[in-house]
Design goal:
It comes from Flavobacterium cerinum. The protein is mainly beta. The protein has one helix and 19 strands. The strands form four sheets. Strands 1, 3, 4, 6, 10 and 12 form a six-stranded antiparallel sheet that branches. Strands 2, 5, 7, 8, 9 and 11 form a six-stranded antiparallel sheet that branches. The radius of gyration is 21 Å and the shape is globular.
Amino acid sequence: MNLTNTIRMKKYILFYAALLVGMVSYSQCDPVATLDEDFSGFNVPFGGFPQNCWTVIGAFIHTEERGTPPNQYAQFYNAMMQNGSSYLVTPELISIDAQHQFSFDIFKILTNGIFNPNIILFTVGTFNTLDNTRVFTPITSSMVVPNEPVTHTMIIDADVDQKYIAILFSSNSTQMFAGIDNIKYDAVAGTKDFAKTSFSIYPNPTIDRNITINSNLDSKADVNIYTLTGMKVYTGELNGTGAQNLNLSSLSAGMYIIKVTTGSFSESKKLVLQ
């Protein structure tokens, strides 16, 4: 091993050691009702946790900055271990009540101009506590981190015992990079909130899988429907102001998230197919 690699290796060892120390030094933070985190203002590069009431369990996640203009995000980086894993943990939440949607952008990071062909997996779940008695409860299956950014949106079932949402990253190879950004936990508009919002759905629930969307949007909008685990199952388009019918006969019965996006506007609602 040459001198440059030796210095680099020592830097990573010291960095991971510092993260392990920080992992057990949870700061006292008040529970929050919502999240809207793009990691602006976090320490970079190699910003260790805890920061701003966010926590890491494990030694492979830090905050980083890349791009022009620079963008800050949380980065999973497995430098040396064949089977490395870590959790990125949100601040404590006031409630996980099935009335909020959880969303985030996730993507691979280029290494020397290319994507490492090996797989990084991620799983979304919850923690009841962050002390030594903590138990991770998965709410999704393990999914592969995509090369390009993908937004995942989901509603987490109500559970009064769960206090934190966490994303578990794992890889079976070294030199693996993944980024996560724009993490949000915000209220989902229900059927009683139509007057306050820019689109409404009728009927909801629907029995025959046909719905009508009324909107006061002044431009075309994308319509995407997701399962509660974040899988996109429908893509369509609204033509603008007025009513538009959607045939969802290809979807199974269940609860979904319908998301309407145009320009800087984005809004989601629950949709129930019976």
